Amino acid sequence: MENVAAIHNTPEKILVERDNGRNLSFSGELIAKASSSDNRAMGSSWSGETGRWQVLRLYKTARGKYVAQRINRTRWQGERDTSEAVICENQEQIIEFFGYGWLAKELYGEACIDAAVDVDGGAL
Predict the structure, then answer these.
(1) Residue 107 pLDDT exceeds 70
(2) C-alpha to C-alpha distance for 38 and 27, rounded to whole angstroms
């Protein structure tokens, strides 16, 4: 069954759970997602830790703000997944939250965010 919100181009209601504060509720859409893997066989997407991986998500709200979320997943008994998220006003705040690692750069590519530094003119 197709998502009715997607058919009519209306934002869907999203709830982002987080451990670093109150959950975030908004109307909007997921604009980019990147994930590492806990499986060594996955090659370049391996997280570097067996049984643990990260999921990065970037949402755009109906009012033009961004919600950046980092989820740390685990398969280990006695550990639990953790989630942190922040509200961002612009791309610089998104980059500040996610940083410059390979997974963040993968997310930036999907979201069309240029995190490069223009050597002759400063940050783009």
Answers:
(1) yes
(2) 32
